[in-house]
Automatic annotation (TrEMBL):
Ranges in a coiled coil: none
PANTHER family from the UniProt entry: ALKALINE CERAMIDASE-RELATED, TRANSMEMBRANE PROTEIN
Organism, as annotated: Dipteronia dyeriana
InterPro entries: TOD1_MUCI70 (IPR006852), TOD1_MUCI70_glycTrfase_dom (IPR048354)
Chain ranges of the TOD1/MUCI70 glycosyltransferase-like domain: 144-462
Keywords: Membrane, Transmembrane, Transmembrane helix
One Pfam family from the record: TOD1_MUCI70
Protein name according to UniProt: TOD1/MUCI70 glycosyltransferase-like domain-containing protein
Residue stretches spanning the membrane: 45-62
Amino acid sequence: MTSVKQNSELLPVRRGGPGSIFDYPGYFRVASRGRRFGRFIKMRFSYSVFVLAALVLIYFAPCGFKASFHVTQEAQQGSSNVVKPPDCKSNLLVLSNVILIDHILFLLLVLCYPSCKIDFLESVNDLVEPKDFTDFRNFTKFSLEYIDKEYVSFGTNMYKPRFGGHQTLQEREESFYAKNHTLHCGFVNAPGFSSTGFDLDEKDKKFMSTCKIVVYSAIFGSFDFLRKPAKNKISDFSLENICFVLFVDENSLSTLSSEGNNPDDRGYIDVWRIVIVGNLPFDNMPKNPKVAKFLGHRLFPSARYSIWIDMKVRLEADPMLMIERFLWKTRSEYAISNHYVRYCLWEEVARNVFLKKVTATAANEQLKAYQSDGLTKFDPSNPNNLLPSYNPESCLIIRAHTPMSNLYSCVWFNEVVRFTNRDQLSYAYAYVKLRRMNPNSPFYLHMFKDCERRTMAKPLGHRLPHAVVQ
Ligand SMILES: *[C@@H]1O[C@H](CO)[C@@H](O)[C@H](O)[C@H]1NC(C)=O
Ligand SMILES: *[C@@H]1O[C@H](CO)[C@@H](O)[C@H](O)[C@H]1NC(C)=O
């Protein structure tokens, strides 16, 4: 985190009432106290204040841990069942093996809110799409097709159609090859059975097929508030040329309506074109938005670029300038940010279990599968690392819809379908395996800094406080 800008904004004050939460469900109360504190002292926190505070906290960590042990004992036991190898420690966590410290760090980070200045172009008038992107000149070229039907032999009355299909381990293995082939990538139906879900209106599909550049998001199960992009930061050019699409289910739409956010005659709320999704494919609710998040290339078949943005954040930068800065300028097909502090996958898992976002059993099963397929712990000192971190913050994904980017999105999605809904857990595995299986086919993925992510996508938290265990 170089060039850290002092940010004059204190914590956003939510008007969502008592149900609102901060980013991490267990920490709502601490967070809201922090908010009042923030308003009270009315000073600008700088990054150095944050570092100082973090060091002080780490220094006092052992006492803090003891004091709070009884409160968190149960949760701690939960996480100690998990994963073995925390001899990989990230940056500031070196001195602590305590997730609690990480929570405090997170809180501090949010309070201090380091965001960094991004060297965007001055204006969208100067944009020129590089040749690489118009003809994929320097990107791996191949053509992908997607399995849309599964045929079932008669007599298999155990068969239940699934949105993700029934991918065998062999098919999963082959799906990683960067070559012309047909693979599982959601939207699998079985003739003779009803739809496997994510049903869209023909009118919406027609609209979606016209989009060339898309900014999109989803709210299912009323999990998030509606976040309106900061229009003063978005150019007229982007507002006119980009499809802003928000997928919602009927229930979420009623919740939005009850809060006064009703679609207008053309189906828009603010800049968002509302697209209603019927028949959500997964009983495991958090998996449903992943369909949109990862399968943008399937939902918007003519789109050449897409930006996925979670509704827990607000778009605060011009999407065209984001594409220029993070794809064109870096010659990347896929851009995603680092996690704010952790790069170690096993730490991330421990935290997810602690927060009850996933069960220890499910997380263990997933990690064991990955370990046995060669995923090792992240070693920050290894110069040959394929990634700068194994832990992304995936609330903002900027993509060119190139073959490699589409393939990666499919295989990552398939991991989320097969295992837990926490996509951080499969990010590195899917990427490293893709690279390993295709040593001669480059894939240009760029991980940018979390503080940059925060400049473009400001964290505001989810609506629902419930932790989600699968
Ligand atoms: C793209 O590939 C061409 C050769 O095929 C090469 O001359 C050029 O420098 C490459 N451009 C970039 C940006 O890598
Ligand atoms: C892959 O598909 C593309 C487009 O369909 C085609 O032009 C190309 O020849 C195919 N490559 C191979 C190796 O079959």
